[in-house]
Amino acid sequence: MKLRSTVSLAACFAALTLTAACGTSGSSGSSNTGYQQGTSAGHGGMRMPMPDPNEKPAIHAVRAFDLGTLVVDTQGLTLYRFDKDTASPPKSNCEGNCAQVWIPARANGELDVTGMDKALIGRVTRTDGSDQLTLAGWPLYRYVKDEMPGETGGMGADQVWYPIAPDGKKIATTVDARQANALGF
Fold this sequence. Notes:
By secondary structure, this protein is of the alpha+beta class. It is 18% helix and 24% strand. The chain has helices spanning 2-22, 98-101, 175-182, and strands at 58-64, 68-73, 79-82, 86-87, 90-91, 102-104, 112-114, 121-125, 131-135, 138-139, 141-143, 161-163. It is globular and about 35 Å long.
């Protein structure tokens, strides 16, 4: 099932990237595809998107084939919430070694938001003084082992890490499992 999510999310991210590229007109007349040149070991020649330094940071709601709609960052990498954090008031409890594995989504400047209510987007100041992006009060993180757009390798880690839905709820099961539960299976 992870493969379906990876392929589906990668396709959604590609569509978002193409839509953004096609709808953008610039004075330079050139466009940057945002992909690193060269190869990435272990990924069959697929390349990670490289952030454009002139591109505004963004988060997008995308549809994953077997997970429903979840939130990704500018590079299409899944964003997670941590059950040991608090949403009201927003507080991050992932510090030190935790923050090296679960990278806080930094809140730097204006953010481009697609597919979710902008009013749910906020920030919280971490103990190190940096600002972290929040959704419905939940601090957002990227899992260091998710290397390609669409990967959800951190889902359910330690039974406290979950991809986040556009409304701030955690995504703890696949769509198929939720449908089966609703039908009483």
